Amino acid sequence: MYNAKSPSRSTGLFLALGAAMLLLAMLSQQPWAAGARGAARSAFAPAEEAMTSLAAQVDRVTAVFGDVSALRAENVRLRNADEALRRQIVELNAAAKENADLKAALKFEKASGHRMVAAQVIGLGPDGFSRTIEIDRGTADGVRAGMVVVTGAGLLGRVREAGPHSANVQTLADPQSRVNVYLSTSALQGTVSGGANALQLEVQHGLGVTASNGEWALTSGVGGGYPRGLVVGEIASVTRRDSATTDHAQVAWVNDPTSISFVLVITDFLPS
Amino acid sequence: MRRAAGAPLIAAAALAQVTWAPKFEVGGAFPNLVLLVVVGVTWTLGARAGMIWACIGGVLLDLTSSGAVGPHALALLAGAYLIGFWTRNLEHASPVHIALTAAGSTVLYSAVLVLTAGLLGQPTPEAGVALQLTLAAAAYNAVLMPFAMELLRRLQALTHSAPQPS
Q1: What's the predicted TM-score (pTM) here?
Q2: Which residue in chain A has the smallest CA separation from B31?
């Protein structure tokens, strides 16, 4: 343990550094500083990319040891395949529920007709409050703030900030994230928000229908924040609240940001 | 610990925090490696060194997240300063003391992050979610801190340096 000689010197340094960091924070969030901020983040991105690559290699090496690791990897692969198949079923069911072939065809065309940019995940958010990921595509690749980010399994989040060669994506797990959804079977509407362990869903009450476990939540397009029909997750549990106007549910998200390597940025859809 | 050794250490901690650490999530929380390094540096080298490395590590973390640059630095700085006060008045530091400072710093770090976000007009998490994440992170960091401290002591021994006066 080290005993400092002068508490007042430490206090002086603390106040000076605190003021400097607060000033930096206020200045760096000004619109005119966005370019410098993005450039600084892009400069840091190669180091993140290298570290992520190293982490992936270490993961691969450690996965060799022991059957448990191999079985786990196989389990993940099968689960991903299962999720992809279930997504197809959900999307087909959801389309059928629209009860109009033309509408379904248009929806399909809309869903498959988006222009996308593939990006590699190079980093994850530094704290539990901001569940974000860093990707290796930026404004130079056509990525802009507000664009929607998906994976093969479904919706991942939205680009929060884009630098020249990297961008920061706010995932659905972020406590500040909000997505309007509808449920695949009951057609009830609700809002999904991020949470510590699982996505939280507030489902509006409907006449004669209730949300139930196993239903799928898809983006409703309400509010114009996200395109309609992107898979968000499966309802894991529902808590009925008769005295309120909404029920509460937990949603098992189709994505796990810590195990995603590649994402797709939808470049021809911006929130209205 | 020499500054030359400190710079790669804090950079490695920041990079590991945004690549490896989230994979070890428990109860919504994951280890804050930069905070562990800052707490360790404050215990071994004093409050002034801890505060300087808090700013450097915090800015590195800010560069990996969206929004303003500075909130993580401020959040780490507050912890380093308060630990400095406590260490001055403590005769013998035990692993429990060190773990407690990690937990306390995590709580302070989270509180400053949320307050700074509010001050800068950025969205803040709901109180319940914030509390749950903070407590889980505090417990996680407290468990890891004695091991991090041991690692820092060994690194310090490797660099053959005497503690720098603050």
Answers
A1: 0.76
A2: A127
